Model the fold of this input.
Amino acid sequence: MIHCVFDRPGGVLKVFSRGAMQNNFPATGDAWGRTMNPGGGPHGTDWPIASGHYMLTEWQSWGTAGAVASEGYGQIYVADIDDATKQRLIDAGDCTVSGDSLVIGEIALPRGGLAQNGRGGVMIHGGGSNAPDPFAAEQPLCATEGCTRVHNADWPRLVNDLAGTHLGFPPAPGSAAFPETVVYTVVGDSPQAGC
Done:
């Protein structure tokens, strides 16, 4: 199992493998809904997703030709942990259950809540529609529609850590499911982004 922990208050996404931290990346989980859709909260459309344990399922890079201002050069897809994945994690000794929480990497939180909050299509990506240059290597980390935003140059590094790939920046086009289970733990709430 690979474990990504997004410390939203600290603005850092950490990657752990076999219990040791392998890398960390600046990130934001702030979302436009706080000001644009105040009735949609706390975890509905355009709001930050709930704290909890999720899984990362696959990555997709569009390269420079397919880059999108709002999302940069590609996406990593976030999903709720399903029952089969939960059982695999328990069987492997990577997860225990404590009441309504899963304990993964010594962090006790409920399973995510995308479905229960009517959410789908949540990702980790770069870009930024409000950024002066959304394709810059170190673009500002602007608010999203509830996704996690990282710097464009860090996005392929994150994919490399999770998938064992060798993407550079800007990344070449490609996509694949992750070769092993990747748990994505979201902790706390993000401070308001500057853009």
User: Anything to note?
Assistant: The radius of gyration is 16 Å. Residues 48 and 146 are 4 Å apart (CA to CA). The longest strand covers residues 174-187. Residues 154-163 form the longest helix (10 residues).
